[in-house]
Amino acid sequence: MRKNALNALVAGAALLVLGGCMTGPDYVRPPVDTPTAWRISDQGARDLANVSWWEQFNDPVLNELITTALRDNKDLLIATARIEEYAGYLGISRSQLFPQVGLGADGNRQLGSPSGADVFKRTYSTYDAVLGVNWEIDLWGKIRRQNEAARAQLMASKDAQQGVVLTLVAAVAAGYSNLRGLDRQLEIAKATAKSRGESYKIFQDRYAGGIISLLELSQNKSQYDEALAVIPKVEKEIAQQENALSVLVGRDPGPITRGKNIDQLVLPVVPAGLPSSLLERRPDLREAEQRLIAANAQIGVARAAYYPSISLTGAFGVASGNLSELFSGASKIWQYGASLNAPVFTAGQLAGQVQVAEAQQKQALYGYQKAIQDAFRSVNDALIGQDRTRAQLAAQRQQVESLKVYADTARLRYDNGYTSYLEVVDAERSLFNAQLTLTQSQESLLQAMINLYKAMGGGWMVPPQTAFATAVTGK
Hints:
This protein is of the alpha+beta class. The protein folds into two domains: about 1-95 and about 140-305 and about 350-475, Up-down Bundle (Outer membrane efflux proteins (OEP)); about 100-135 and about 310-340, Outer membrane efflux proteins (OEP) (Single Sheet), CATH 2.20.200. The protein has helices at about 1-20, 60-70, 75-95, 140-210, 215-250, 280, 285-305, 350-415, 420-455, 465-475, and strands spanning about 100-110, 120-135, 310-320, 330-340. Helix 3 (about 75-95) packs antiparallel against helix 4 and helix 8 runs antiparallel to helix 9. The longest helix has about 70 residues, at about 140-210. The protein is elongated and about 135 Å long.
């Protein structure tokens, strides 16, 4: 009879759990206003498959740097460890849905009356071993809501890791393109300094021979000094960029291996896709939605505190006055029961907890909506940026060509006595600055393309998490 009663109690509890109601609102994705199209689009763009987007630069050195960063970057390792942390939280939450079983054993030696009725006291021993069970019945869905929140937090941590991957890849690609741009600026500065140094030596000889004035010699020297001053400035920026890249790839600051120069880096294709797809592609948006799901579930946890909590308890064991006979001649002991706890008066504590949960859910909702708006803005900004930078770069190339003609003509006019050296100074200075600016614009266009892929969640290619797994496992 006792066994039948225990079975009936457990079966009834299971039915209560399965059929119990869930407090709090079920999550429904909030409506989102998405633009029907981007402000600038590339109708000829096609989805690329089976390659990581950064491989379009066609530089094996860059590919290796990114692979190393995905394996050794400390921020990424922290984000990966955080996933393990939230997986542990989910395991803790899930465990509350099942009975908690524990084993206890006691041994005592004491002076007294074993039965409590004996007149004479004596020394005696008692030993027992008991298996205890405690199970809180999730009648109102509190534990299930906690489990829902923990699962959403785990998914959010995975999306956060993918966001770190995307940011890391973009940062390495941007740092490398900036480094190659600086390398080109250094080449221009050194070549210009060499050319002007040779010119300055000729002017010194001409001045010594009385052919030119001190004014012309000083003008020529100022050009030479201008080029020399650029070299250490660019060298400093190169060293700083190398240090930054080294840390990104998980190494101590130091030099970075070079691959293709900035002219040889291939511009990636503009990724195609509908604006609505951005919600599924960007890891930061997925993370924000998972945070919203978790906050929504916490409302149910807070509301469930208004209702009684019901727990089943049970114990089965053995007891004996002799340790050697504990499991052979001992008497059995057992008990089972149920307990109920319900709030009666909390002076507004529970109402405050619900208010906190609802306010946090609103914050998460507004944060999700703002993240979506920021995402659409960043994509449109990136599209405009790469489009206008292309136009700017084309105009600057023409400017450099025009300034080359201007500098050659000015030098020819000066050599034939038709103009002063001031015209040569102006032409060569303008050409030098335009060449540096052109290189900066080349690097800006590469940066704009990187920003575009980052804004669109990595482009329509292998997701960042797949690239991360490949870099870690080598498969």
